[in-house]
Amino acid sequence: MSKPKILSPTLREKKRYLAFEVISESKLEFEEILNAFWHSLLNLCGEIGTANTNIWFVKDMWNENSQRGVIRCRHDTVEYVRSALALIDRIGDSRVIINTLGVSGTMKVVKRKFFGERTLEDFGPESYEERQENTPQQNKL
To answer: What domains can be seen in the chain, in order of their start residue?
Structure first.
């Protein structure tokens, strides 16, 4: 039995990762936000449009304390996802605002840029040297 062929990178679907933040009167559960988003997207795009977005909630990236999360979607449907998030104004009994923090092509950049994750490379000697080069030197008289 032969292995199935792997698609080349040019034929694969391009993904985008959308970071979002929920501002609400009370703390919300992940499932409540998930249900509200699906209802909003279905009302906006319909069933076929929702299926074409290839939405995937990255559950490992949901932070219960800061109420931040990540959604993965196709690159050409990012605006539909942003619109669906913006249309959510009430979840259960609490009023909510969902801010889109930004969009990126990789999960690594989302973690670093929107969630403040740092790596050892941020503390390396070359980053120190670059910072020294970029700071203005004071002339001593």
So the answer is: 15-131 (3.30.70.3250)
